[in-house]
Amino acid sequence: MEPIVVAKNLSKSYTKGLRALDNVSLTVNQGKVLVVMGPSGSGKSTLIRTFNGLETFDRGELNILGIKIDSTHDERKIQKIRRRVGMVFQQFNLFPHLSILENITLAPVHVQKRRQAEAEEYGMYLLNQMGIDSHAKKYPSQLSGGEQQRVAIARALALKPELLLFDEPTSALDPERINEVLDAMRKLARQGMTMVVVTHEIGFAKDVSDQVLFMDSGKVIETSPPNIFFSNARHERSRKFLNQLDKQ
């Protein structure tokens, strides 16, 4: 399996000595799904945001799709990575003044210089895959939160990424809308999309992940296959976290 992400000894500190990342190492192979879990403030979001250059790091080395970056944060390399890596955030970040289809075709046309007709055809294909092609001419305010997040996923896919990052994609949704987004992500996993997903959704992690990485205080506490992590986690801190999730 070809590694898509290789992180070696990543460290990042904020003021007052707070370590967001503390010597983090991991590998994500092509076609695999890594789920990142951990309590609030454990460094999960900071970690995956380094994978497309939204966060810098102080020490260590990162190899994304064969492009090596270090603490110098070479902007040319970051731009190369961003052309090949998609990201879906907690908030949908759709342009409210653009239609759903216009939101999806904006980057392919202006960044990748694709023809408008080609971008629209592929955009409609993606909306169909997400089950929301009937909303193509609507505006974000006319859609539910779950529908907007599926548009955000389609927008990320419109650039035909080789790696897709999800930063707690269901945390801003009403409970009844969560499954429609998770089902869309499950479909991507079945199609072989390489994904790194920060989430607290245990059912999704059990179904889809190849590995679960558990973080606390900027450190990787445990990396295990889902069948081990959720039934017999190796580390006491992991077990305590899962017990707290079960009580929610």
Automatic annotation (TrEMBL):
Example of a GO MF term: ATP binding
Keyword S-adenosyl-L-methionine: no
Residues making up the signal peptide according to the UniProt record: none
Cited InterPro entries: AAA+_ATPase (IPR003593), ABC_ATPase_HisP-typ (IPR030679), ABC_transporter-like_ATP-bd (IPR003439), ABC_transporter-like_CS (IPR017871), MetN_ABC_transporter-like (IPR050086), P-loop_NTPase (IPR027417)
GO biological process: organic phosphonate transport
Superkingdom of source: Bacteria
Segments forming domain ABC transporter: 5-242
UniProt keyword list: ATP-binding, Nucleotide-binding, Phosphonate transport, Transport
CDD domains recorded: ABC_HisP_GlnQ
Family listed: Belongs to the ABC transporter superfamily.
This protein's name: Amino acid ABC transporter ATP-binding protein, PAAT family
